[in-house]
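pipeline stage [seq->struct] | target=Alpha-xylosidase | organism=Agathobacter ruminis | residues=779
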Amino acid sequence: MMKDMRGKNYRITVLTSRLIRLEYSSTGQFVDGYTQLVTSRDFASPEYDVKYNGDCLEIETGDLHVYYDQKEFSPQGLKITLQKGFGIYGSTWKYGDKVRTLGGTARTLDNANGAVALEDGLLSREGYAILDDSKSAVITEDGWIRPREIDGIDIYFFGYGHDYLDCLKDFYHLCGKTPLLPRYTLGNWWSRFYPYQQDEYVSLMDRFAQEQIPIAVSVVDMDWHMTSLPEKYGSGWTGFSWNPELFPEPERFLQELHERGLHVTLNLHPADGVKGHETQYVPMAKALGVDYKNEERIPFEVTNPKFMDAYFKYLLHPLEEQGVDFWWMDWQQGTTSEIPGIDPLWMLNYLHYKDSCRKGNRGLTFSRYAGIGSHRYPVGFSGDTVNSWESLDFQPYFTATASNAGYSWWSHDIGGHMMGEKNDELATRWVQFGVFSPIMRLHSTSNPFYGKEPWNFGTDANRIMQDFMRLRHRLIPYLYTANYETSEQGIPLMQPLYYHNDCDEAYRHGNEYYFGSQLLVCPITKPQNQKTCLAKTDIYLPQGIWYDFFTHDVYEGNRTMEMYRTLDSIPVMAKAGAIIPLAEDYSRAHLHNPKYLELQVFHGADGQYTMIEDDCSDQKLQQSRYQTEFVYRCDPEESVLTMHRTGNHFPDEMNHRVYKIRIIGVSNPTAVRVNQTLRKEGIDYHYDEKLSQLLLTIQEPDCDQFEIALTLLDGQVQKTDARAEIFDRLNRMQISYDLKARIYEIVCASAPLSERMRRLHDLRIDADISGAIFELLYM
């Protein structure tokens, strides 16, 4: 069946039953090649019906009904109706309608102190959205670009209803996959705008190691290059040559960082071009025919292929040969170029990423967002935010909502970039969000008091930040699996609640999000109550049984509730049946598959999780892949955990992996059977009655499958006693001792829960005090 219907001036192409391309051109010419936005229109041919009623063309798929009068596009002459409506009056789009999407993302958070306006995304509650490709440039066969010569309308109608993930999967098919990131990018990044001496910087990395705080990426801001220049050269904002006063031996500097397991990126502001002081100025000027004897400045021309070839060849590749792993493109110099319609930021991202792949490596660049389609050039740098609670409060929503534009890998200045005041609580909460965000990068401005090293903060904040930064590296097996899921399945790491819950509460809780396939996160973004010494956040728990990842407290879902947490925790929820792999050796988890792996299994429902690993070489685009499928079958009498390995032959270091298995919320089993054999020899297991956890240590056998079966007298989820936690919360509170005792007496009374709740309500205590108690009583 033909996919498109044509007239003298129009072309309508049915790509899928829910994705339609609509083109109109006064010349009758259309674009068939790839553009800045669209990289493939090769979809499987859908079934649809076409009929003509007079001048009206009607196209009907199983999901959409297109009406078109075959004239110039107009609201009266072109409309598309979803077969399934999502409003009182159905869901119909008319050409020219402004679609109220659920938001996308923004170019930058520079100077933001709280919320900023978002561009449109691909999803809406009305069930449809428009992607306009009318103005984007065309990609030529040699990989360069040229302006679109056809002046017309070229838009894509997405009519996926509330099947949001299906919409994104087809968007990625149309506009290109998100590339697979190198493993090391998922660890902690250290960054600061500060004039470090090279030995000082290496010593700082050693201090992190001494404190047992893992760092994966060393970011060196613009002071790596010469910034104070003779007057004749002008500003030192742009630079491509090492500053010999700070980095007298750059090769040794880079080598020492690599020896410590670190990858390195340097900051670039290329807009001022290349000046006579640069070490590579003369060969580059000769290649471009510039008067080098008079040190004529070489202008920055991102749309000139000859200049860009020289830019990479003479300026960047020699630095990469010294050991620079990738580039931080800190572009802040406008949106116009020599080619009308070409944003220089997009062009830089496109060319930098393409160049980074030139040797068959996994590509990587680090830059600001340049519109829909930017997901093909990760990682995103969100810019210089103000250090404030308002900025922190916006970032979870901003990051999760970016998935609506297909953009997954945002990196924020964790802790805020500038201004504000020192606040241990704010800094700690920001680090906690950073650990449960796509890229965890500490950063700050050059103020000498602004260092984000955890030991610069108070004792409690220091300890908590360090613990969370270690947790980030322990999570790398889980994050790396999500990396594959994002690239190959089109499933973003961070997903708003409404991707999986079609209810009003899911849309209202914008700061709450799914983090990978197994976790639900609601960061705390507001300060604690000074009386309760607890911070509060409002959370929606979908249907099911949920565990707090940190405390293992159990909550019933299908409700909204306020959760209260001390500084050392945020609500991270794992649904019953969740299976989460954690690296035991967090210090090298960004470089290697772990030899020792902790597997957390949350009892109470069936669960499945497939962990994906590979050769851990960031230098190879294609690698051997290893998949381990974990299946938990929850049964009232016997629950079974099965591990099954698939894919390539596992290397020796993975054949004898040691598993520490933690089954949480389970009763004390009367028997533990491994691979159908009732035994204790060969495994070590222990039941912690207080925590309701079974802990097993087992060395993986040299085979593709093993099975652990637990015989249970009571298969129900074993909940922890809330009274001890309530006592701890009351003990921390800055309130009357007598009031504490009265509250605890009511909590421990033998009366029914409803009666105890009534008696607590009668005390007329502060809402946050009662809320902190009610949360635990209602679990």
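stage status: PASS
auto-comment: The radius of gyration is 29 Å. The chain is about 25% helix and 25% strand.
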